[in-house]
Structure formats: C-alpha cells, structure tokens
Design brief:
The protein is mainly alpha-helical and 121 residues long. The protein is 84% helix and 0% strand.
Amino acid sequence: MTKPLRLLCLAAGAAVLSLLVMRVGFQTLVELLRRVGWAFAAASIVYALHLGVRAIALWRALPPGLLSYGDVLRVRLSGEAIETLTFTGPFLAEPAKGWLLTQRGLTGADAFGGVAIEYLL
C-alpha cells in the first residue's frame, strides 16, 4: 500500500471516529469510560496480549527467517481489523492474512499453511 493511500485511510478513519464522537457526544463517552473504570484498561491489556501471542504463533508457524515478528504482527493486526470492520469473522480475515503474507515475500503454500496452522492452534 502506498504512503498516500495509507494517509488517506488514516484520514478516513479519523473522520469516521470524529463523526461517531459528535453523534454520541464526548461527555457520554467520558461518562461511559468513567463507569467502566480500570476494567477498560485491563481488558485492553489482555486483548493486546492475546493479539501478541497469536502473532507469535503465526510467526512460529511460518518458515524461519523470512519475516520479522514486526511484519507478522502488522499482518495479524490488519487481519483483525478486516475481521472487525467487515463483520465477516475469519471467513475473510484469514485469507486476507495469507494474501498479506504473500505480499511480503512468502509463497502461497507457506503463507496460507502458516495461517491455517495458527488458526487451528
């Protein structure tokens, strides 16, 4: 993905977030976060650890030395974003991860095999 396209996606995401905050109301969001309290931070940390561990599993399922953990983590986060934003679950997210891994130099068999192993684990 080119840098201008990434910046465009970032701007579009920020615009959507701004629109949602305006519709719901900033004070409402602050009140909801206040009610949830530290549980929000705890849940966020646990979810971040979950994503990190799944990225490690995917990284270990791939042929060694071809990709860095950072690359695999970015692919994992991109797949998670696709899964969440499209509401398709793993039906679209897992093939997208395989495709993103092939874009980083893996063969199709290695990429999709690694994704399948990580998903089954």
